[in-house]
Write a structure and sequence with these properties.
Helices cover about 45% and strands about 20% of the residues. By secondary structure, the chain is α+β, with helices and mostly antiparallel strands. The chain has a seven-stranded mixed β-sheet with strand order 9-6-1-2-3-10-13, sandwiched between helices. The longest helix is centred in the N-terminal third of the chain and has 34 residues.
Length: about 350
């Protein structure tokens, strides 16, 4: 009995144990493969997943919040669906206690959704031009202080010779809070930025930070002690940085909170439907390409007040440029008018 071969009663147990290990290993492998596939699909289709989550969980909340910022200028009915192309007057206001609000940043933009292109034309706030309804000239930023958004829109339309389809204003305090909510923005600051003159608000920004908070972003926009050209360029850079940060996938879920943070600091006559459709289009298709230009001119003193005299030839150039962008039949390669030697100093080109 002791030398007898093992019977079949003992062999199946060993086989079962072995098969059980194989089975467990097989299902573990399948589970891991499935997880990898799901994770991979989630990564590859992360934009679609994010948009689905937005439509499912956040769209109504975002729309409701945006509706609180809606403020039309007059009885004119604006389109609710994204059309191609359209213009938006962007105003950064600097409204503080005991001070009249002025439009510190003035940018006339044309958006071409189908081409994924945006034109940003910066108008220096000290530009000497006729103020709508006043029949006299002054600094263009005085239009907002004296007549609000409607007078600003009318004044800019007179200057650039083209209509403004929409407007959007944000107070700089709101901008600061939005940047903080985004976790900061990336800015190309390679040297110290500091106001040193007594007449200017004290500020200092250290260079080469990996990320800049809301206060730094606000200081970046408000820095005064260089040229109007550089100042308006910084405003465009900041807008681009905020848009890029907001469209990062980890910040999509912050949209409702971002809009609540902006709150009363943000006003526009774009409907919530319009803005949501436009944002989803840009998010799904990728960031648009920006082309930048600044109204050319030179400084002049009048009654001890410094103004920015716009170049009449450059105004004519800008009017043609805007007309090109507004025309849906203009090929994308021909949107930018040829820039003369006189205009080259004012152009910053496309990004």
């Amino acid at each position: 009995m002791e030398n007898q071969e093992p019977t079949r009663l003992t062999r199946p147990r060993k086989r079962k144990r072995k098969n059980k290990k194989k089975s467990k290993g097989k299902w573990l492998l399948i589970t891991l493969v499935c997880l990898l596939l799901v994770a991979g699909a989630g990564y590859i289709f992360r934009k679609q997943v994010a948009l689905l989550a937005f439509d499912t969980f956040m769209k109504d909340t975002v729309a409701e919040t945006l509706d609180q910022s809606y403020e039309k200028i007059d009885e004119e009915v604006k389109p609710e669906k994204v059309q191609n192309p359209f213009s938006v007057l962007l105003l950064g206001t600097d409204e503080r206690k005991d001070e009249p609000g002025r439009s510190d940043t003035i940018i006339y933009s044309v958006v071409r959704p189908e081409d994924r292109k945006v034109l940003l034309i910066s108008i220096p706030r000290d530009t000497y031009t006729e103020i709508a309804e006043e029949n006299k000239k002054s600094k263009i930023n005085a239009a907002y202080a004296r007549g609000g958004i409607k007078r600003s829109v009318d004044t800019v339309e007179n200057l650039v010779g083209n209509n403004v389809d929409f407007y959007a204003t944000i107070n700089f305090q709101g901008l600061k809070d939005v940047v903080d909510k985004l976790g900061g923005v990336h800015l190309p600051i390679t040297k110290v930025i500091e106001n040193k003159q007594k007449i200017h608000e004290k500020l200092r920004i250290e260079p080469n930070k990996p990320i800049y908070d809301g206060q730094d972003a606000l200081s970046y926009a408000r820095y005064r002690e260089d040229s109007d050209f550089n100042r308006t360029m910084r405003h465009r850079v900041l807008i681009d940085a905020i848009l890029a940060r907001a469209l990062e996938i980890q910040n999509i879920t912050k949209l409702p909170d971002l809009l609540k943070v902006a709150g009363s600091n943000f006003k526009t006559n774009m409907t919530s439907t319009f803005m949501i459709d436009l944002a989803k289009s840009f998010y799904e298709g990728g960031m648009p390409t920006f082309s930048n230009y600044m109204l050319k001119g030179e400084g002049a003193m009048r009654d001890s007040i410094w103004y920015y005299d716009p170049d009449q030839k450059d105004i004519e150039y800008i009017q043609k440029l805007i007309a090109n962008w507004h025309d849906p039949n203009t090929p994308a390669a021909q949107l930018m008018e040829p820039v003369s030697d006189e205009n080259k100093a004012a152009a910053s080109g496309g990004k």
